[in-house]
Protein 1
Amino acid sequence: MPKRNILLLTACAVLVSTFLIIPSSTTRFYLAVSIGLAAVAWLLVAFMSRRSGTSQESSGANVAGEKQTAGPVFPVSDLFEATLESMREGLLVVNSDMRVVASNKAALKLFNLSPPQLESQRLTELTRNPAIYSAFLDALKGIQRDSVKVEIHGPERQIYDLRVLPLGHTNGNGADGALGVFFNITRTERLELVRQEFLSNVSHELRTPLTAVMAFVETLENGAMEDRESSQRFLSIIRKNASRMHSLIDDILELTAIEGGNVQLRSATVELHPLVNDVIASLGAKAQAHGITLTNQVRADIRVYGDTRRLEQMLTNLVDNGIKFNRENGSVTIRYEGNSRDRLVVEDTGEGIPSQHLERLFERFYRVDRARSRDLGGTGLGLAIVKHLALLHGGEVTVTSELGKGTAFTIHLPRVAV
């Protein structure tokens, strides 16, 4: 094996090992980007060198009387083209006149051209985005841009991390060309936004009960302990807020485990009627305290297929919501409907939910009435947990509501012969 190939393989092994042991996902991402850019640049150089030396290689290969026996050889140009077309990242190469000399399918899709043609066009004809143009212009001046955030507004808003580097000789007159790679980071940006929003919501939800706990502890420390009646009332409030924080943390951990794929279902045939009875029994005292009647309308012969514990968890969350947001002397009814799917319906006689809130009802921390929800002890994660558990079963959860008449949540489960 040639010495150059041995060195190349060794370098690759070292880079892969480094990539695997780095704990930071951000660092790994930028390392992968650097490796990708280096590989593409190497292929371009190899391709150009191959083309310039084609005539010399052909003449040397036809020396009279010499025959060489070798395995299949793939032309560098074919390998280069296959690499470009298989890349998910958009690749664009321009010459010193800012005309496109090479591109791939991903770049074609990125610019959404009609007719679909990039080569020989000026960059200004492809896009008016100033961030893209200035990045390539800097590269032609010999300035490498490590990262440029680019937003492209088409049918959907897409966000790209653009890396542009000079190609060819860089002297006082600038580079011969520039290579740009567009990395689609739309999903990463959305996840980061969700993460920031989640942390903000968690901080906000914890701040209120924590502030109350600290305030009443300080009051007790300042002498309220001597007043037995007041101290008991303060301790009761502290306990209530501590319990609320505990419930919030439990729900966060539960939702994180479900969304992270760390919850495994133990599906089996489940008798639905006794399961609903267990849910009603667990919430009976709370329903009675609110003057709410709980009714099980599921027939005794009904069986569904799912995880018993998770089905009970979903029904408990929905019935608990039905109790908290019901009207005085209202009711919550649990029933079964079957057609192409098994449907578990939890219906209450509350005030109903305005239609503009229904689409976002299953989002984390989304509340129709924030003040009332917090007063009733809600964490804002119960419906999100129900949604993800239903999806985990291969089903879904839907909601219908009518103002002044009540709300019905329906868990749809795939029907399995039971």
Note: The first strand starts at residue 90 and ends at 95.
Protein 2
Amino acid sequence: MVSPADTPNDEDALLREWENMAGSDAGAAKKAAPKSGEDDADAMAAEWEAMLNASGSGEQVGTPGLNRGAQSTRVLNQDEIDSLIGFDEGEEERTDRGGMAALLSSGLVSYERLPMLEVVFDRLVRMMTVSLRNFTSDNVEVAIDNVVSLRFGDYLNSIPLPAMLTVFKSEEWDNFGLMTVDSALIYSIVDVLLGGRRGTAAMRVEGRPYTTIERNLVERLIHVVLADLSAAFEPLSPVTFRFDRLETNPRFATISRPSNAAIVAKLRIDMEDRGGRIELLLPYATLEPVRELLLQMFMGEKFGRDSIWETHLAEEMWFTEVEMEAVLDQQTMPLREILKLEVGSRIMLNANTNSSVDLRCGDQEMFAGTMGRKGNHIAIRINRKHRRPGA
């Protein structure tokens, strides 16, 4: 057994042994390192001290030993990061964004301006004001908020639900459009048409689907708006917008690819204390047949028509030369008999000297008369004029 008195001596021996080991390691390091090692150690200590001092000011130097000799890098502050990304809290309304913000907002692409379309929508507002007053027997004010260009998929995602989405087709252009009626206008129209008292806001019932009566009343409103939209386009290009279907889920109202461009006109309808919004969406593919007309500048009330050119064209039409054909008779023969025809063959016509001769311009029958002679020329005396089909 070891007595307690021997313990301090053992501890002293152990300490002396550690000192000898540390001394031998330091001596070996001094022998292995050149004299410049002390200078490197001092330089390294100075670098570590500079790094510790710079950490409090938000700067960081390169890691010693790994990036020795390289330029120091610093940490960006929040303002510099926002500038690099393209976001600026103080100027949220700026449109000339850069950096990653320009990539994130690439859906808001600026498309070509269609001056005539703005005129059409102005005409639509005036016509809707009159037609909705007659439809509701109330004081109705219609105004257009704005006309924007955006992608179809972005518009579907931005529709506030619940709402009614109407898919309509343009017969002459062979494409579709979309009309959105928000819930505020739906309840307002139902309240007005069913005799609601004036001066009271329409009551909204949340959490239930629209009833059959509400859908039928809104469908009547949609027919009125589509008729006015057709009349607004008529001076530019005759077109008929036909009601196709009524949807409440935006997924079932998809009429174009999500990435396709479209024009959205937002209309505001006020009926004293009641009202709401109607949004008209026309894809650029729908407007493609009349794109050239929509690019024209508005001049007066003629929707871009040049009366001087129309008058000149009408006058020059009278000097146009057309070819007339006199048809005495026509027959239908089998192909085998036609192949048997040779030089000298005869075809008997079911006509005589008093038979009627038809004068044709292309495939259109113009006049009917009798054949005769005037001098050395064969002549036809016109007896009557053919009536055009449907005239």
Note: The CA atoms of residues 153 and 258 lie 4 Å apart.
Protein 3
Amino acid sequence: MTPRMTRRQFLRVSAGAGAGAAAGLAATGAAAAPLMPAAPQAGVSPAPSAPEVLIPQRAKPLVIGSANAHKFRNGGPRTCVEEVFERIVRGDDVLSSIVAGVNILELDPEEDSVGYGGLPNGEGVVQLDASVMHGPKRRAGAVAALEGVRTPSNVAQVVMEHTDHHLLVGQDAQGFARRMGFRIEDDLNTERSRRLWLEWRRRIDPDHWLDPEKRSEAAERARERMVAEGLVMRESLYGTVHCSAMNAGGEICGATSTSGLAWKIPGRVGDSPILGAGLYVDGDVGAAGSTGRGEANLFGLCSFLIVERMRAGVHPKDAAMEALRRIRSNTIEKRLRNSRGEPNFQVSFYMMNRRGEHAGVALYPGSNYAICTEGGARLAPMEALLSGGPRD
């Protein structure tokens, strides 16, 4: 009786036979032909097929962001998304690359919704918010109502790297930044941001103070008139920069930075520094970030929602549309609705997943988002949930 061959012996013999066949082909110079299944012999059941083995492929580097991420250069050769792409393809850490790109906007005095020269709060003080998330390391950091530091994204990264915490705020965030070696300035206003604040103040407060209801109405009318007159861009009222990126290894990180709502109540914090609202990254799934009315986004933690929907296999665009529909259904206060009963504000989302699929969506049409790939940087139109505009 012939002894049965063990599985280990079978594999060893099979491997040897395969190597011998390959050597024979190499010796004769014959080209390797594709393996075809042999016809089953009569009375012999075919062997079960081996399970499919999925071999991971390298990802294509990708950077996306809000439209201003491909507008401002601060006198340099590249925009934010171009700078980030340049760095990640040479092997730099993805988050550090993003922060370096966001710094371009934070330091540019012409960008009045981010960093230095950002539109100040109601008392004329520039207060900055930022958050960062590192997908592979499962780490995050953020600062809110930070004064005196031009690049809050850097401080948020230091919070992530040097503390056990995710969020520092106000004067204590500034104290932390000072102790970590950041330069603290007395005033981050530029001549332009201060002039716009004075104009807004003059329009809403000609007799020093109004009752709360009238003051709120006057502030809103003043903002709208200044937009209509071209003194300030509408996107600057809720201006923010968001940027997410993925390198060739599939590592995803993101950052969001803002000077917040123009002429806000001092101490007001929107969605930008709040993990799950203005930014959320899961290294196994993807990233999402936002710009626009922070309070609307905060209520539903929409960036977290978007990433969770992508985790379930939903395309980035469809995941974000679900978040926008939730914002729409949650907007029930009359003061926040236009004559059509729809939200009278804009919210935008920017998403990517690990497959390299990405999208930019907004409540209303007319805006763009930034993309940078090996083919270069460009702006692409946002897809909208609603038609028309927030104010008609």
Note: The longest helix spans residues 7-28.
